[in-house]
Structures are given as C-alpha cells and as structure tokens.
Protein 1
Amino acid sequence: MLSVRRVTKRFGAAVAVDDASLEVADETVAILGPSGCGKSTLLRVVAGLERPDRGTVHWDGDDITETPVHLRDFGLMFQSFALFPHRTVGQNVAFGLEMQGVDSEECRRRVDEALDWVGMEGFTDRRIDGLSGGEKQRVALARTLAPGPRLVMLDEPLGSLDRLIRDRLMSDIGQLLDETATPAIYVTHDHDEARSIADRIALMRSGRIVQVGTWEQLCTRPADEWVERFLGI
C-alpha cells in the first residue's frame, strides 16, 4: 500500500503541494482538481521525480522518500505519450523490460501480452509515426504495464485526445486496471474520467487535498462550499 504523509513541495516562494496525505491500497484513486492545483507535482513526488520539502512517501510501511526513481518499481504514464519514435511499437513496450534485464524470450511474451491487454495485438512491428493518437496512448499504457509495476501512475493520460477517443479509452483503462489488479493513481481535471475510472477520488485545491471518498460520498457529503461548486452539485 502507498502512503503519502503530510507532503509539502515548494518551488521558490510558491507552495505547489501543501501538507498533503493520501493512501492507495488495491484500488484506483483519482486526484481530481483544477489546473495548477498541484496534482502533477504530488504525482512526481510519489514517483521520485521531485523531492518533498517536508513529509514522506511509504510503500508497505517502508519509507521510500529517498529511494531513486528506478528502484521504486512504479510505472508512470505521461499525457505526452513519451514514446521513442525510432523504435517500433514492440520495441517501445519492451523498453522497461530491457531495463529490468528480462531475457529476450520472456520479453517477447510479455510484450505480446501487454499489447493484447490494450487491444493492439499484431502491432508489434508497426512504426510509431504511423499510429493515431489513441493508438499511441494504448502503446504508452502497454509500455507502462508490461514490467508489472506495483503501482501505476497516469498523469492526465487522455488530455490531448478528442472526446470520442477519450470516451472509448476511459472505459478501456478502467477495465484494464481492474483486470490486472494494479493499484493506480489517476491524475485528471475531468469529472467524468475520475467518476468512470476511480474507486475513490481525492479532491485537490491550491496544493491541499480537501476531501477523499467515492463519487457518491463526495456528492452527498461535500466537505465545503467549494467542493459543491467544483462538483456542480
């Protein structure tokens, strides 16, 4: 289980994350809030890409605040896809497995398995620049899942796609995370994405997590007037 304990992160005089605490067990938790509220910064602290000014990050009770990114065994998927244009689809998905030192036969098996998960079987030898935006996002998700991370983090993964593709992938991602039983943090500013994909939602405002619960709990027992307005109650 992931446990974020009273994390604060500053950039100069600006406080991006302010005394934030969050727990993620065997579930998908969405961090939902307006742009600039600190969602992505909190995710980067969990990933180890940013060091908190105060507070700690724990996994199964162990303090991993100072653990390097590559030793955390977390998978991170960005909005920008971050795929390698000079690699084929299969080579992109294999990248994390190669970094783990997985042998070639097992690597091929897990690449095929991951592409099957995201509905892209048969795309192994395709070039990245020939894919649509939705297909690229599926490849990025397969690459994130292939190494079998103990936690998946998705940072606004559908933000750059049109509505039709977003709606289709929204359903697929939620189902895939359930099927693979992978704990996940899903950062978004979109109410529909959070409601569709997450088991619980952490509402974030001005660097602080103001309420955590299911969509129904947030709507029926909002913590304050801002939560009511933001959720459109």
Protein 2
Amino acid sequence: MTVREFKALCAEELLKITDNTDFETEQIIRHVLKLSKNDYLLSRNREIPDKKLGKLFEALNKRKDGVPLQYICKEWDFYGLRIFCGEGCLIPRQETELIAEETIKRLKKRGHFIDLCTGSGCISIAVLNNVKLSSVQAVDKSAKALKYAFKNCKYHNLEDRMDIIRCDIAKFVPKRKADIIVANPPYIKSGFIEMLPTEVKKEPRIALDGGEDGLYFYRIIAGRYGRYLKKNGIIICETGYDTANGAKKIFEENGFDTEIYKDYHGIDRMCVAKLKQELTV
C-alpha cells in the first residue's frame, strides 16, 4: 500500500469521529513514518513497509476507539514549542496558551513564578523559553503527569530554572514568594464528567474534575496562595465557561481585585487576580 492509498483509507475511516480528517490523517502518517512536513508532501507514491503499515493501522484503530490524537502522536505543539504528552497527562490546548501569553507579558527578566497543577509543564516551558533568566516551581500531585513534565524540561534544557515538585497543591509550601502564580486547575463539574466526549474522558479524571461546582481548586488557590505572592503579585488561572464568575467571586472574597478575559472563541477563559495588599506568610 502506498502513502496515498493509506491516506485515502484513513481519511474515510476518520469521517466517523472527526471533521478534521485531513489534518488528523497527516499527523498519524507523519508520526508513524517519522516524516517532516515536506517529506510527507513528497511521499504520496511511496510504498509503506509491512511493519510500518501495521503500526499505521494500529494508530488508526486507536483513534477510532476514541484515543486522543495527541496520545497517539505522544507530543503536541504548545505556544510554538514541542511538548511531550501521553496517557495520564492533560493534553496541552490552544486556550491554555492565553495563560502562558499573559504570564510572558507580565513577568520580568529574572522573575520567579509558581505553576500549580502543572501537568506536562507546558505553561512553565513556554514562559521559561520566552522570559530570560526566569525561574519556576512547577507543582502537581500526579506522578504520571510529572513524568512528561520532567521529559519536557530536559528536552528544552531548562533543568537549571525549572524545579518540578510532586505535591498536592493544598499542602504545597513554596520555597519563596513569587511574582506570579499560574494555574490550569481541574474545573469541570463532577456531574458533567460522564457527559464529556469519549476522547476527553480518556484524559485523567484527576486533571478534569473540579468538584461538585467546578470551583474546588479555586478555593484552595485563592485562600492559600495570596501569602506566597510578592507585592503587586498576581494569580492567573484558566477557567471554564461556567466557572469564571464563580472563580472571580472566590478571589474577590479573599482580597483580590479580579478581571475575567475571554478566549479566541469569546468564552470566559482566564481569571487574573491581583492582591489588594501584600500578605505575610
């Protein structure tokens, strides 16, 4: 079978689960055959070796079973950077780039930040790659997720600036105060988890479930982490469309001035909270 023939077959099969068949087909073929974008475009008439063909069908069948494309490819692009991810790790998403972008805008050279619920470490990696000499404490309680955070940290040569810590954020005690605290916490309401698309449910529940009202982790962050901010420090959190206002209220009740920002689709996606006055640890 040639690449062209498998491409046609794969696209037809994927029509059952996605509207983006051409993109997903390309990603699967390039991943399995280890092709660059240019090589992919030039390989239409290339015969696929039997062993590789078997791997292509294995990948296609996984995708048809609802396995996320990112888990099949074992990596994804985030803020223009290569980020490794896989089972047990939340998939880096475009909307989360807003958190990285806002942090990059506000963090000064040599600044220090804390990344709560870091997962793959994608936010930390993006910020460190764009703010010279900055440093981070990246925290998560999932050993499976942190396996990818360590891999990404090493791949991007950031071991000297990225301190990865396995700990529940309800118990974590930072080594020093931060200029900025960022978080992409779980914020889906517990009762809504089973209604999510099949591929989203393949992601770890621990990274999705925000408690009965989706606000469990915002209460922890707002109530606990203000004392670990420097003067004029801020907390930047991702929110869901139905948790943004609740998160805003929680931060305001804990002494923050708070703004909500929308994502590329006009959905309330980011909560930026600034302390009214510095707290002591």
Protein 3
Amino acid sequence: MGKKALIASFGLNEDFLRGKTQEEIVPVIVDKIESVRGYEPDLIVLPEAFLKIGGDRLNPRWRGITNDMLGELKRLARELSCYIAAPLYEPYPGSDTLRYNTTFLLDRAGEAVGRYRKVHTVYEESTVSMVVPGCDYPVFDTDFGRIGFQTCFDIGWRDGWKALADKGAKLVVWTAAYDGGNLLNTYAAHNMYYVVSSVRTDHAQIIDLTGRAIAEGARWNGLAMARVDLETQLYHIDRQYQKIDVIRKALGSKVTIRAYSEENVFTVESNDPAWPIERIEREFGLMNYKDYHAEAARLQEEWRAKYPSLPGEG
C-alpha cells in the first residue's frame, strides 16, 4: 500500500485581508499553518502569490519580505515534519525588476527541493507585474507519491496537465487567485490523478481521481483537509465488476472499494501493507483503467490493419 498522506489546503479570502501590508500577512500565514499543527499534516498548500494581497510591487521591500516568509515556512516545515507548497514571487536572476511566479516545494527537513515557475502568465502579469513565464512542467517525488504543480492561468491550457500525467504525477497542486470551477474536476478525472487547489478566495478543494471533491473549504473556514492514498487505482467494470465481491470477501477491511455506476468504474485502495495494489491486481486479475484502454487501442489498430475502414460521411 502507498503511504496515506494528510493534505491541508488553504483558501485565503482576500476580502478578510484588505488593508494589511505584506509584513502583516506573514504572521497570518504562520497562524494558519499553526492551526493544523495538531493534525500532523503531510502536505500543506498555500495560495498563489499570497503576499501580493499586501501590496505587491508597491512595497519596495518585497524581496526581503519574501525571504522572511520563505524562512518562516522552512522553519514550520521542519517543526511539523511536513511538505509545504509555498507560492511566492522569485527574483529573476540579474534583474532588479523581473521575477517568476514560483511555487517552492519544501520538504520535511525544511529544504527547498523543487520549484515550479508558472508557464502561462496573464497579459497584465507580465506587462505590469513583470513576471517572466516559465518553460517546463517538473514533477517531484515525495515520500507519499509523485506530485506536480500548476498555477492559476495554467488552467486554460491542457498541455501542462497532460505533461504531468505523462510524467507519472499522482497529485497535481493548483494554486490560484480564484476558485477554478469544474475544469479542476475534469482534469482530475481525465488524467486520473488527485487535484488539490489552494486559492485566494474561499473554495479550496481536494479532488480525487474520479473527479469528485472529497474536501472543500468555505467562506468562514477556507481549509480543505483530507487523507489520500496516491496508490489508489481506478478500474473499468468491463469483465471486472464480478470481482468486487470476491475481493471484499477475501480482504475485508484490508481494502476500500468504491463503485460509481454512472461512469462504470470503481476504485480500490489498500489499507494493509501486506496487500499493495500490485498484489491485489495480480492475485485477483484486475486490469487498471489505463491498461484497459491501451488494450482496446491495440486491438483497434490490429482490426484497422486487417479490415481497412472508409472515413465517415457527412
């Protein structure tokens, strides 16, 4: 079984922070993180460029404040022994004006072990805020699974979401200034990975690999928190739904099985280290959803080669 990870993702409503300076927002963020200390989270996620709420480039000390904030987040990552996704502006090398919109990944030791630089910047973001767009979609291996990042306007492009799936991401963190809506659910379901959103509004979410929200924030409490297992696997019911009762009878509470009739799929999550998903698939003859589609695609190509088909008419 994979390591089950407790994720805490914050919605940070800008309406409640109007009038605060960047300096004043630093302790607000620290207090937010302290509020979940007792839950022992594995990953804490914060919204896109959250210090921007306090004045952005109007504050000539933004670089120093950013460094102070990053230092506090590193300290908290060490103390809580958790990963933190920290979206902050990052100075562009050799320039006093240019910068990246970066999400830093801090590990359990408080080290910055990775960074994602927003690829798809808004027009005003580059022309006014002087943000240089990034150029790639890295993935990062944590002790609970492989993760990737997207930021705000990236939601409008499919390339990054697919690239992360192709690189084996099991969870994608999306940080933003707004809620995002059903595209997040669509990306989760289409790519069959978890999506975690953290926003500068109310509605942070944790969405599972079927596209369903399993935790959501609200106006008066923006925190979305849930425990996930990134090794959870998705299966089509074809030639397999008969095995659900067989697995449940054999393994009982060692597994969690959820079935969805509208999509004709079910998921299997292991609750026992002696029964990882690979063993369950092997011993009960399960084929995951991606392999099932690959099998069908191979057969389709074989049939097209044997029996050439005419194009459709219209």
Protein 4
Amino acid sequence: MYKLLALDMDGTMLTSRKTISLATINAIDRVIKQGAAVTLCTGRGVAELKDYADELSGIPYGILNSGGCVYDFKTKRPISRTLLNDSILLKCIRAAREAAAMPYLLTEDASVAQQEDIRDVSVFQMGVYQPMYDRIATVVPDLETYVREHPGRSLKLCIYHRDPETREQTRRTVEHLDIQLTNAETTSLEVSPKNVTKALGLQILCRYLHISAHESIVVGDADNDIEVLKAAGLSVAMGNANERVKRQCDVVVSDNDHDGIVEVIDRFFK
C-alpha cells in the first residue's frame, strides 16, 4: 500500500547520541530492496549529512533544508530548490545579533557559522551538535559579509537562542517579513522562504516519483515535522516525540534509542 517512507533525522532516525543503529540501517535497506522509495525529511542540508555518508549511502532521496531543497542522491543533483531573498536574510541575521543569538546559515553546499558563536554552542542549547559543527562548519568572521559575497545561494537560516523567551522576541521582530518561521530544537527558530516546509518538499518528491502523498509514511518527532505529518498517508510519531506531535499522528512507536524506525518498517512494509 505504501510506496514512500520519509524519515526525519534528529530525534527520529538518529539516536540521542547522534548515531544510526545497525538495525535501522538494515531495515531501511530491506524497504529499498522491496521496491519502496525512502527519503530523508530533515532540516539538515547536504553538508550536515557528511558524517553519515556510509550509513545513508542506500537512501536515494532527501527532503533537505526543511523542504528548501529536494535532492536526488543518485544523480547528486537537486530536484528542486527555493532560495531565501538575500535582503530579507540580512534583516534576519541582524535580528539574531540584536538577540545575542547564533545565526547558522545553510547554503547549497555549506553550513556557515560565525567564529565568535561556534566556539561553544552549548550557550545556545545546541551542545550535542558541537562535534558536527567543529567538523563541517564553514567558519567566517561575519555572516552578513559572507551573504553579500555569496549572493543567491542561501536556502535556510537557523537562529539558535539562549532561551525560548528570546526566541519568541526574535519571532516577533521578523514575522512581518516574507518568510516561513518554524520552531525547532529547544531554542531554534528556522527561517525558510515563504511557504517552504517539509510538507511542500514531500509534495514535490511525490510528483517526481509519480505517486500520491497518501501513499507515503512520514515519521517525525518535533514541531517542524507537524505539517509534513499532516500531509502523509500515515503519520508516525517516535516515542520521544513531544505531545503535540503525538496528538497529530496516527501511530506512535518506540523512541529513537529503541529502534522505532524498525518498528515502523516491520509493521507497514511486509
């Protein structure tokens, strides 16, 4: 019945230690061999997938940058991409600076952070990602200057705050702009082009594959998954998902440290 399995990464496919279990890898390989399509459905960009190149090598598609880029890993080319307006992006970076927050930019091929912010991201409630940032981030003195020198390349901006209250202040500062705002992690505010969501990415990929979104299963755990879960034929919440996500979903499975993805595959891909 289901022809597409769409998997969020952080909090879903990845364990709390940011690893992928062997059981999950094997189960995904089994789905692909059965003829179903599998896609990542993540806020991460291409650069942030490098640590998992071996584990993800069999997955053919990616809904990346929270829907800003739909990617074909077989051809190493985007199926679609939607860029942020640079002038609006600069306003959002300035708003981050005013909030003493950390702006983190995802471009077509890089993840970019300011030198003063990247030293200790635990200040912004993102300490679990410090090893990844240390390995893959392009570190620059000033993000505004970087955007001016690299125009027309930005897909998404994450603004990591020191606390949820400051995040809401930033949201109020920029919400009048022509952008899509989504809360993520504990204190992150994701800035995407207007109307760009994971749900849009799912629709684009389904058209590309000539299938209906009703033939898809989507698995997630956080607020930035809610729209794409609503668009799926079957919505699945991980056991570690927040209560808003669980209320939205058709099914709840085990958490990300106990192979919830394997449970999904065993139940719905025979």
